[in-house]
Amino acid sequence: MSMLLSLSLSLSLSLQTKSGIALLYNEETNNTYDVCLKLTKSCFSPLFFCYWCCAFQGGAEHNVPVVISKIFKDQVADQTGMLFVGDAVLQVNGINVEHCTHEEVVHLLRTAGDEVTITVRYLREVPSFLKLPLGSPGPSSNYSSRVSSPLFDSGVHLNGTNAVSTTCPSPPSPSANEPMKYEKRWLDDVCLPLLMARVSRYKAGADKLRSNCFEVFILEGAGTYILQFCTAAESTDWLQAISTNINDLTQENIKIINKFCSSDDQVVHMGWACESLVSSTSGRTAAFKFLALRGPYFSIFKTPPISAADWGQAETTYNLYEVLFKVHKLWMTEDCWLQARLYLGLEHSPDQQDDSLSFSILVGHGQSHSFRVELASDLAGWEKSFQRAVFMEVQRIRTKSYMCSSQGSVLCFTMDFESGFSCSESTSKTLLWRYKFSQLKGSSDDGKTRVKLLFKNAESQQIDMKELEFANLTAVLHCIHSFIAAKVASMDPLFLCTQTCPGNYTNS
């Protein structure tokens, strides 16, 4: 069976165009079908699935000939009136295929060009395996132990089912043992939009890599399509091309959303990531989540927010200045690291795990979320977006205070973007001490509630230690990190020039 996959996008974007051949894998039937991939530019990003004029079953691996198992109505093979269900294929373009496997015959048909000459022989009775549903045990053979089912249908029927004909034997073929020509045509097509879609090299719900293939998941209709390639390099090439266009569509969608939002509620970045979950009963599992950096929050969704009401339906929401972004391992830009591994054949094992393209979101009370992305460019995008989003949020709030205690006294600890750190009595507001950000020389904590902050005294040049206790120490430490990082960024002209979100930033 052949298929055409076409991915198209908005003409206003500088998107990739690409075409090639792959296989579409059906996990339910364990069958693969030929597919022609086409990445084009248009208003949407569709996958077009187009099928052969007839389908085939059998093969030498089952000690049976390859026979026609289905002829699609009103197509070329049907219009000739010279092919029938049960005809055994003898030759393809003059090449004898009587002792070829199913895969070899299908490959010949797939690569034969637009016009194919085939020689068939009519079998007086429909082979018994054509009367069985797909997946049923077939004729016993020395090869049957190699496969889950001796039956393999190379075609996908237009009605969407895999049922095969159980009718009476076909009438004698007038063209028995005579060659005939027919033109290969696409029979059907399916359009899959890439907006809010995602791709994954991993098996659903697991941390196991697929071999030379990846899954395309579309939001509309919640469908999934597994594309398989001959080499790891080809698989990566297509993965990057499709991912790039999905990301470009997402960026265009962000621009549209931000046109109707205030400057304090802008979307900085959003997209899919796979969250690693640990359960006491099921062990380590994985689930795809849609992440968004918008305004003052980092939000985690089950599905992408489409309407304004959807933005309020996040699974979890955190204050940006109280979260910490952490890359798990070193990575290389432009996906060089991934490309190198794939070309070296290091990703061929389906059981292999890969945590190198992962990051964690550390939140209050020591909690965290661990996410995995597909490409190094995705990881770089999230890291840069977090830096920008936190910078924007600190610039917006300018100051943040937390209640704390020291030696039995209730105090108020404050971070101010202009003046630095300060501590005052909670009731009288009397200032107890103040230090600039640059005076903080170190810190230590007990991992629970207490922290020691070490400041360099500007007058004595000695180290002053301030010991404080907080109800949520992790959130405070993350907030300190956010303010210091934003302060450093505000003094970096190169960083400020890269800011593309609304708002004017001034150094302080």
Describe this structure in words.
By secondary structure, the chain is of the alpha+beta class. The chain folds into 4 domains: 4-49 and 190-241, Pleckstrin-homology domain (PH domain)/Phosphotyrosine-binding domain (PTB) (PH-domain like), CATH 2.30.29.30; 54-183, PDZ domain (Pdz3 Domain, Roll); 262-395, Pleckstrin-homology domain (PH domain)/Phosphotyrosine-binding domain (PTB) (PH-domain like, Roll); 398-477, Pleckstrin-homology domain (PH domain)/Phosphotyrosine-binding domain (PTB) (PH-domain like), CATH 2.30.29. The chain has 7 helices and 26 strands. The strands form 6 sheets. The protein has a 7-stranded antiparallel sheet. The chain has a 6-stranded mixed sheet with strand order 1-3-2-12-11-10, covered by helices on one side. A hairpin with a 2-residue loop joins strand 14 (283-294) and strand 15.
Shape: elongated
Total number of distinct structural domains: 4
**Oligomerization state:** single chain
**Which class of secondary structure composition applies to the elements?**
alpha+beta
CATH class of the largest domain: Mainly Beta
Helical residues, percent = 10-25%
Task: Give start-end ranges of low-pLDDT stretches.
Answer: 1-13, 42-51, 131-176, 331-353, 500-508
* Helical stretch tally: 7
Radius of gyration equals 31 Å
Q: Tell me the name of the CATH homologous superfamily of the largest domain.
A: Pleckstrin-homology domain (PH domain)/Phosphotyrosine-binding domain (PTB)
In which order are the strands of the major sheet placed? 16-15-14-13-19-18-17
Please summarize the sheet with the most strands: 7 strands, antiparallel
Averaged pLDDT: 75
